[in-house]
Write a structure and sequence with these properties.
The protein is an alpha+beta fold. It has helices at residues 2-16, 32-39, 47-50, 98-118, 133-139, 179-191, 194-200, 273-299, and strands spanning 22-24, 40-43, 54-71, 90-93, 122-123, 146-152, 159-168, 204-214, 220-239, 242-255, 259-261, 266-267, 270-271. The chain has one domain (22-65, 95-146, 162-299). It is 33% helix and 33% strand. Strands 1, 2, 3, 4, 5, 6, 7, 8, 9, 10 and 11 form an 11-stranded mixed sheet that branches. The protein has a two-stranded antiparallel ribbon with strand order 12-13. A hairpin with a 6-residue loop joins strand 6 and strand 7.
Length: 305
């Protein structure tokens, strides 16, 4: 019996453990070296090997938590005095549309472009590569935006259903989810996309993904802000004057913890979109302030040669 009680206690403790977000407070986050170690996961070792001086920002995606419904867990009941009694099912919702999200992600894209430019790496404008025949084939299978629902449930935990809005920056598209379109896109992505680099003189593709959620008091949090740099172009003869291409190396600058904004973004009963945009972009700016010195340090090793 004691072993059973101990086992149940351990299970409850494990289920109650959650990742505690770091409160975003510029006045308290002045030690960049310390915060970089805490917040940043980075692997930047292929830029020099691949001679990366010019890149194509091919994907820039933002995913936003738009709605969250919380219901009591399957085993939650009035007689479970050892488990915190939960309120009835409740739903919270941020009322913004896809166009608002696209505008916000586009600002993130501009900031990422500035970071690469400051590090001495040219980012080709969209019009310099989007007319390429391979990309024109790829974009046929891509999506403009995506709405997703996911459910998490458990014996002791609450049942949480979320709705997110996933959008690209202006002029870009999303990697497809549909089975057939995803297969056709993947073939082009893995075998032919490299020809875009060959024909434009770029050495790498850049992909950006960010996820923004909100907490119990309508405080936005930044859970993910990943920048991937795909380089190491290889070309293979497939016979009869046909070639396939592969990208052999991926570097990244990523978050390994969550940062939560210092205040909520409600204006009365409704979300203040200006406050929300400021919160998201402030957190993005902070992370870019940690990423940029890492990128500059690595590009300085070879760009001045």
């Amino acid at each position: 019996m004691k072993r059973l009680v101990c086992l149940l206690t351990v299970i409850l403790i494990l289920l109650s453990v959650s990742l505690t977000a770091i409160k975003y407070d510029p006045s308290q986050m002045t030690d960049n070296e310390k915060m970089t170690k805490k917040l940043v996961s980075e692997k930047i070792k292929n830029l020099q090997k691949s001679g990366v001086k010019k890149v194509i920002l091919i994907n820039c995606t933002g995913e936003f938590l738009a709605e969250k419904t919380v219901a009591p867990g399957a085993w939650e009941g009035k007689d479970m005095t050892y488990y915190k009694k939960q309120e009835a099912t409740r739903t919270t919702k941020l009322d913004f549309n896809q166009e608002y999200c696209v505008e916000l992600v586009s600002q993130v894209k501009d900031k990422v472009v500035d970071m690469f430019t400051n590090a001495g790496i040219e980012v080709l404008p969209d019009e310099a590569w989007q007319s390429h025949p391979v990309y024109q084939q790829m974009v046929k299978h891509m999506e403009e935006y995506d709405e997703d629902k996911g459910t998490k449930s458990g014996m002791f935990s609450q049942t949480v259903t979320t709705r997110t809005i996933k959008v690209p920056a202006y002029g870009l598209r999303l990697v497809p989810d549909g089975l057939i379109s995803a297969f056709k896109y993947t073939v082009l992505d893995t075998q032919q996309k490299g020809k875009i680099l060959e024909d434009t003189g770029a050495q790498a593709f850049v992909r950006v993904y960010t996820y923004v959620g909100y907490g119990a008091k309508w405080t936005p949090f930044l859970r993910t802000f990943d920048i991937f740099i795909d380089s190491g172009l290889k070309k293979y003869n497939a016979g009869k004057d046909k070639f396939t291409y592969s990208i052999t190396a991926t570097d990244n600058l990523s978050m390994q913890d969550i940062i939560e904004y210092r205040s909520g973004v409600l204006g009365g009963k409704y979300i203040d979109t200006d406050q929300y945009s400021k919160a998201v972009l402030d957190m993005i700016d902070y992370m870019l302030g940690l990423y940029e010195p890492i990128l500059q340090k690595n590009t300085a090793l070879y760009l001045k040669e």
